[in-house]
Amino acid sequence: MKTIKGPAIFLAQFMGEDAPFDTLDNLAQWAASLGYKGIQIPADPRLIDLEQAAQSITYCDDLRGTLAAHGVEPTELSTHLQGQLVAVHPAYDAIFDGFAAPEVRGNPSARQAWAIEQVKLAARASANLGLKAHATFSGALAWPYVYPWPQRPAGLVEEAFAELARRWTPILDAFEDAGVDCAFELHPGEDLHDGVTFERFLAATNDHPRASILYDPSHFLLQGLDYLQFIDIYHPRIKCFHVKDAELRPNGRSGVYGGYQGWTDRPGRFRSLGDGQIDFAAIFSKFAQYDFPGWAVLEWECALKHPEDGAREGAQFIADHIIRVTPRTFDDFASSGIDHSLVRNLMGI
To answer: pTM here?
Structure first.
């Protein structure tokens, strides 16, 4: 069995203009001061030159050296925003346009091509950094039709996933060439948002070996999905883990859909670790059971608590939940030492 690595922290929600949140060097020092051993790095030009990382092992060695000087290491790169732009439904075109580089905004085809190249660069950069997995979003073409009213035309879902597979298969091939797993965060708003949609995508990509999962139980709790059984079913494909809490407290006025309310007022909302309803002891037990090979990475998205408090508390929370796996069975002391021949005799064979 493997002991999960951690604690680590996803930097996306902490980047800012002021120190210590303004540079990768400062963020690494800050994270280490809280007890984190790893950082998940968004592919943002303020933190990493993705093109240079894809081309230069020296650049990547220097980056790792900078982090190591603070006592942390990179866990994964993230292209959540770029992955989102691989597939954008026209209903969301204007809203997502700001995720792209300025030179391709307002041009959906150029934006898509830019996004695809960005994720491919991240595959090579991940390999140069010595990373085994990468975190991203799938994008969405079918999401506006998630609820079947009006009735969906026959073939709409099938064609949406066929097109998603056409766009992602060359990217997944780039990850295969790099020897890195591409882990999709299963997230509402993405066409890959639960187990069934991930299976649809796998089928459309001919079970591509690099198509993997970023497991975040908060998104499953808010969907009413059994997030523990999910691990039992999909653990061979789970390569990344966001440790994020949530609560779902439906009432007489609002439920899973949230009534267009802001995050503070929704029945389903994200919380800092330990403040929600997720059974992390059971989750960490399952990851120990299934030899999860990766990191436990805090993602802070709380509707109430200050992010710096959530980060400070989260490091200890994760450390307390990591199970140092046992090297032996608890009842080894009672081994009878019976050999194979005696076993056969005991059964009369």
So the answer is: 0.96
